């Protein structure tokens, strides 16, 4: 029975339509398996081969992959929340309340977005600690650590800009305090605050700017740097496998 | 063919510039000018020229409504109207630390910030906490109708009371 199912899958994968999309067909040889990864626009960021040790749970605890998983949840739930949310004063607050009490599954999506955001910040830090204590940040992977720091900042900025959007008291005062911290930058601090808020107080302009940052600019930046981050894993010789292995660097 | 006839060849004298160097400098220069222009335009576009924000000048109403020796907070405009035995003055209610709205505690006779614990006395002088500066005194005057007006955008350095 299992053989029959496998045969069916093989038949589908040898089908002309399937082969027009995935040119490599069945994975019945190492070459075809490698081609499947190499010829896929998404998978080609990754190596076609990995050491068994690097894909073991103990090597990474899958923290980077889990971070990416929370990011995908945030993108999907975020887009769905955007369908009911108006970034205007005072509509934003009632839209948030509508999502909680009126929209079907709205409270589930909002809470999923919120908890995934918390989880993502936690996982980014956990991932960084894991990379740091394993020494996986060392050459030749030092630049990917830098990309990772940029991604940490993007994650924190996404978290911060999203915090204003419910337009409740917590959001308002948190962003008042945060934007005043920005104004402590020497010489240009007040200009930075003015540009960030689009005015002198946390107001309709600030809500709109934070919305655009949260939903367009920062997610774009995150996707861009995530792509570079993944691609650099392959270019830097795969996931760090520990001291015992022979590195690709040739050192 | 000799090297001298090549278009990109180095000129004979050091003051002269080859055609290639000239175009390279023109290209880099124009890109630099365009980048600078983009930065200036970008900055100007991102700074709003008109702000639809509430007026900084607030009508605090008739002086009689404030009882003697009182501190009254208007949370909407973030000002305190303080009435002492000698007269009136207006105090900003925005904490000088990170901009939270402070509150007057009548039982303690102090102004306290809920965010990070700064404390001020009724004159705005800091008693405790992380606030770097006292609460500023704001310009206050009486208009023709006998109402107290406060300009939230102008702090006064010399403390003056409005006597009614």
What is the chain-wise order of helices and strands of chain A? HHHHHHHHHHH
Query: Briefly, what CATH class of the largest domain in chain A?
Result: Mainly Alpha
The fourth-level CATH homologous superfamily of the largest domain in chain B is Rieske [2Fe-2S] iron-sulphur domain
CATH topology of the largest domain in chain A: Cytochrome Bc1 Complex, Chain C
Number of strands of chain B: 10
Which class of secondary structure composition applies to the elements of chain A? mainly alpha
Tell me the β content of chain B: 25-35%
Radius of gyration of chain A: 23 Å
Secondary-structure map with pairings?
The complex is a heterodimer of chains A (251) and B (164).
Chain A: H1 2-14, H2 16-21, H3 30-38, H4 57-60, H5 63-82, H6 91-101, H7 106-134, H8 142-164, H9 169-182, H10 189-197, H11 204-235
Helix pairs in contact in A: 5-7, 6-7, 7-8, 8-9, 8-11
Chain B: H1 19-46, E1 57-61, E2 70-74, E3 79-83, E4 88-92, E5 103-105, E6 110-112, E7 119-120, E8 126-128, E9 137-142, E10 148-156
Antiparallel strand pairs in B: 1-10, 2-3, 3-4, 4-9, 5-6, 6-7, 7-8, 9-10
């Amino acid at each position: 029975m299992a053989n029959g199912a496998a045969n069916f899958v093989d038949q589908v994968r040898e089908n002309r339509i399937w082969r027009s999309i995935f040119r490599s067909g069945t994975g019945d040889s190492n070459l075809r398996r490698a081609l499947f990864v190499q010829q896929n626009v998404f998978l080609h960021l990754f190596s076609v081969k990995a050491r068994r040790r690097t894909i073991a749970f103990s090597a990474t605890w899958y923290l980077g992959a889990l971070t990416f998983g929370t990011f995908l949840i945030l993108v999907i739930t975020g887009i769905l929340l955007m369908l009911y949310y108006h970034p205007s004063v005072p509509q934003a607050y009632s839209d948030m309340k509508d999502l909680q009490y009126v929209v079907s599954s709205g409270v589930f999506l909002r809470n999923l977005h919120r908890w995934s955001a918390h989880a993502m910040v936690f996982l980014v830090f956990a991932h960084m600690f894991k990379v740091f204590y394993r020494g996986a940040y060392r050459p030749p992977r030092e630049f990917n650590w830098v990309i990772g720091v940029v991604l940490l900042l993007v994650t924190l900025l996404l978290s911060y800009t999203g915090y204003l959007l419910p337009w409740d008291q917590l959001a308002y005062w948190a962003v008042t305090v945060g934007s005043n911290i920005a104004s402590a930058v020497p010489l240009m601090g007040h200009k930075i605050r003015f540009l960030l808020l689009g005015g002198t107080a946390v107001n309709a302009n600030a809500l709109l700017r934070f919305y655009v940052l949260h939903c367009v600019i920062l997610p774009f930046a995150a996707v861009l740097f995530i792509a570079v981050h993944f691609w650099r894993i392959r270019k830097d010789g795969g996931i760090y496998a520990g001291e015992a292995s022979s590195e690709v660097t040739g050192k | 063919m000799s090297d001298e006839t090549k278009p990109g060849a180095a000129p004979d004298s050091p003051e002269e510039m080859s055609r290639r160097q000239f175009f390279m400098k023109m290209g880099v220069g124009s890109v630099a000018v365009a980048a600078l222009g983009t930065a200036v335009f970008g900055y100007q576009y991102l700074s709003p020229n008109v702000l639809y924000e509430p007026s900084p000048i607030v009508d605090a109403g008739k002086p009689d409504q404030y009882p003697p020796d009182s501190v009254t907070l208007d949370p909407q405009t973030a000002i305190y109207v303080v009435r002492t035995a000698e007269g009136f003055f207006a105090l900003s209610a925005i904490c000088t630390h990170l901009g939270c709205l402070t509150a007057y505690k009548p039982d303690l006779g102090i102004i306290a910030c809920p965010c990070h614990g700064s404390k001020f006395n009724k004159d705005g002088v800091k008693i405790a906490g992380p606030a770097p500066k006292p609460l500023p005194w704001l310009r206050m005057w009486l208009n023709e109708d006998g109402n107290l007006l406060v300009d939230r955008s102008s702090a006064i350095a010399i403390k003056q009371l409005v006597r009614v």
